[in-house]
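Hi R.,

As promised on Friday, here is the backbone we talked about, encoded as structure tokens. Could you run it through your design pipeline when you get a chance and send me back a sequence?
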């Protein structure tokens, strides 16, 4: 039985990946920052067989202890502060957790495995935010990075540290450069979930307005369940490498609004939605769209959920949740 250790198991991707690995027969271990609370309970519900270890990416000893206890074959580093919108307000904290946290984990792995570098395969959750002001459209694995947010800069640090540990020490260290992926488990601060929740609440008469930022921003949005499958495939390859994971299609925020409101029978959403400058960002990622040729050809990976299906799935889920609460 293979053992996997997932940092960030309480997050959107951590929950889907934990489920996937448990289904595949893995012994799943996860890092949590606290051994109680709603997010802890969500992991227990989704992956009841998982063993959870209290640790923090900013605390190297806690990482080493968890590795020594779990003895994993595969480590998936999904932990970190992941919300771009607030990253300008706590740039230093995001550098510590999302950037240096990856280095802490790589160092803990190096100490844990000693001379036997082949004992562990490491996956780093890299991001399309590293492309920021895109130097090329669409972006592929060799496209130069130009991160435009403290989050993107921190992820770029983690990405290059991953490559550096592969090249310097021969660690099997791979990264998935993932474009936006969403689901009913997405945090409520991200634009897709913010919209699906608000649409559900507006349609039930629980709210009558939605304050938004840049409605013309475009993203390459896929379904998180598809994307965690790619993470697993990446670690099953004979040689460590980096892969773009995306759908290859972009949509504007207003396209998401169109479909989400249409799903509850509202066509004139303009009367509910207001642009509030508080949600505009100092800089935006531009023309972010992934070229997945390598993922398709090497991993045999392709997304299975369309943009339309994703929006419908998220609105339906929020409608059901809101109705339950009535
Ligand atoms: P998420 O839902 O925000 O989950 C983040 C996870 O990180 C949570 O489990 C959180 O735990 C944990 N965490 C936060 N601070 C930590 C710390 N100091 N030490 C240890 N763990 C900590 O993110 P996600 O959407 O699942 O994304 C997973 C990873 O992929 C993240 O690294 C994200 O930056 C990256 N990524 C995401 C996307 C996307 O579109 N979703 C795209 C590219 C890359 P708590 O419950 O304790 O807060
Ligand atoms: O914004 C625009 C916003 O916060 C998407 C993270 O998972 O993906 C995610 O980062 C777009 C941006 O995600 C609102 O300006 C308009 O252009 O959902 P988001 P993100 O910043 O793209 C990348 C790949 C990651 O790695 C990150 O971890 O939507 N937008 N109005 C808005 N965004 C938000 N949040 N709220 C609004 O009201």
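Update: got your reply. Pasting your designed sequence below so it's all in one thread:
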């Amino acid at each position: 039985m293979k053992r996997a250790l997932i940092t960030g198991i309480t997050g959107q991707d951590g929950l889907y990946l934990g489920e996937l690995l448990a289904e595949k027969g893995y012994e799943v271990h996860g890092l949590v920052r606290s051994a109680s609370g709603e997010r802890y309970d969500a992991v227990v519900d989704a992956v009841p067989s998982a063993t959870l270890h209290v640790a923090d990416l900013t605390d190297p000893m806690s990482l080493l202890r968890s590795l020594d206890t779990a003895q994993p074959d595969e480590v998936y580093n999904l932990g970190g502060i992941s919300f771009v919108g607030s990253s300008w307000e706590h740039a230093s904290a995001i550098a510590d957790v999302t950037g240096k946290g990856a280095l802490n984990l790589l160092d803990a792995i190096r100490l844990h495995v000693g001379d036997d570098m082949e004992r562990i395969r490491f996956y780093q959750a890299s991001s399309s935010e590293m492309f920021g002001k895109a130097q090329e459209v669409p972006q592929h694995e060799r496209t130069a990075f130009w991160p435009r947010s403290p989050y993107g800069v921190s992820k770029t640090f983690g990405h290059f540290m991953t490559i550096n540990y592969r090249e310097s020490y021969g660690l099997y260290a791979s990264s998935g450069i993932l474009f936006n992926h969403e689901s009913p488990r997405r945090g409520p601060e991200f634009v897709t979930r913010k919209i699906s929740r608000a649409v559900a609440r507006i349609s039930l008469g629980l709210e009558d307005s939605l304050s938004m930022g840049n409605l013309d921003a475009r993203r390459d949005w896929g379904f998180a369940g598809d994307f965690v499958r790619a993470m697993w495939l990446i670690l099953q390859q004979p040689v460590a490498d980096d892969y773009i994971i995306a759908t290859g299609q972009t949509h504007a925020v207003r396209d998401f609004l169109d479909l989400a409101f249409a799903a509850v029978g509202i066509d004139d959403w303009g009367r509910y939605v207001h642009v509030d400058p508080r949600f505009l960002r100092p800089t935006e990622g531009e023309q972010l769209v992934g070229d997945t040729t390598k993922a398709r050809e090497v991993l045999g990976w392709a997304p299975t959920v369309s943009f339309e299906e994703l929006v419908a799935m998220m609105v339906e889920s929020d409608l059901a949740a809101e109705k339950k609460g009535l």
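One thing I noticed while checking it: The mean pLDDT is 98.

Thanks again,
M.
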